[in-house]
Design a protein that fits this description.
By secondary structure, the chain is of the alpha+beta class. It has helices at 194-198, 204-207, 228-233, 253-267, 289-295, 327-336; strands at residues 3-5, 29-30, 54-57, 65-75, 81-83, 86-95, 100-102, 106-114, 128-130, 137-145, 149-158, 164-173, 238-243, 272-277, 279-281, 286-287, 307-311, 317-322.
Length: 337
């Protein structure tokens, strides 16, 4: 049978194109059963309504390609977070319009990915709803997106208490990615460092927005003492994190910046770790040029955050993680260097 997908609402985007939302890594993929169809739908950075689950598509910069990471945040009508275990993503290509009917062509198992630094406790094997501020996370699955345009997404979850929860929405897929990714040369960024702030050449909060709430002191100084271009000239691998801990819409930036600081202490001999603050001046909506070189690289790039990139000693991006850093994936990628 065929299922209808209502048009999605416009994407929630911050001023200067900084969007909110989440991130994660994935499980195995499979084909949907013949005759299955997609109902309701999910479009990038939008929420569905009127179902068991509200779906927030948390991936940034989705483009045509195989094995694309698709992230979703799942909430109950009471704004409880669905967490743990696995859910099923079912997808259908809708064409140039967000609404309409389409037949499901993929069924993908998606695993829960907690936000590093904000992991929910008391994990269970099956999904369950969490009330209050019990942590954050998304579901991640690997999908094949063979055509641009709008795609319908139906999510089915079998919960710990025996219920079946469903929701649908739509998301947009571009012909080509707008933000640098694996295989692309890393931008040779001459980012400001803590030395520039100490010399009075830049405000401390433009190095790290937390400095504006900490008497002007820049935290995690070891994330702000390396110029990316210099590290690349030296043939050093680089980990680049682009976050705005104070102004992040999803509240994922702060915890993940803290985790990045810890990783830098553990793996600092393997790679240089550099944090780029998104905002040079948040009140005036001025983005740091260093961050813009990465997240506003394409003509249609929206400047979503947070982002994390791994660059090898040849200056080539080997991995990127949008919104939520997958620590297991990151550790494996770093070890492969």
């Amino acid at each position: 049978m065929r299922r209808s997908f209502p048009p999605s609402r416009p994407s929630r985007v911050l001023l200067s194109g900084l969007a909110l939302l989440l991130l994660a890594s994935a499980c195995g993929t499979g084909e949907a059963e013949p005759g299955d169809t997609a109902e309701d739908t999910a479009v990038g950075s939008t929420e569905s309504t009127g179902s068991d689950l509200a779906i927030a598509v948390a991936s940034f910069d989705l483009a045509v390609g195989e094995d694309q990471r698709l992230l979703t945040g799942l909430l109950s009508p009471d704004r409880e977070l669905l967490a743990f275990g696995e859910v099923t993503f079912q997808l259908a290509h809708l064409g140039d319009e967000a609404g309409g009917e389409a037949e499901l062509t993929q069924a993908v198992s998606a695993s829960f990915l907690p936000v590093p630094g904000a992991e929910p406790e008391n994990a269970t094997d099956a999904p369950r709803l969490l009330s209050g501020e019990q942590g954050s996370g998304v579901y991640a699955g690997r999908v094949d997106l063979d055509e641009p345009g709008f795609w319908g997404l139906r999510v089915v979850a079998e919960t710990e208490d025996g219920r079946t929860l469903e929701g649908s929405t739509t998301f947009a897929v571009q012909e080509e990615r707008q933000v640098p990714g694996p295989g692309d040369p890393a931008p040779r960024t001459s980012n400001p460092t803590i030395a520039d702030a100490e010399a009075g050449d830049i405000e401390p909060e433009a190095i790290d927005s937390r400095a504006g709430t900490a008497d002007g002191d820049i935290p995690d100084t070891h994330l702000h003492d390396t110029v990316i271009a210099d590290a690349l000239d030296e043939g050093r691998p680089v980990v680049v994190g682009i976050t705005t801990p104070v102004y992040c819409a999803s509240r994922f930036c702060g915890p993940q910046t803290n985790v990045m600081a810890d990783l830098a202490k553990t793996h600092g001999e393997t790679a240089a770790f550099v944090h780029l603050e998104v905002w040079r001046n948040f009140d005036d909506q001025v983005i740091n040029e260093a961050a813009a070189e990465w997240i506003l690289a394409g003509p249609e790039a929206q400047g979503n955050e947070p982002w994390f990139f791994l660059v090898d000693g040849d200056g080539t991006i080997t991995h990127r993680w949008d919104n939520v850093l997958d620590l297991d994936d990151f550790e494996a990628a770093l070890a492969a260097l």
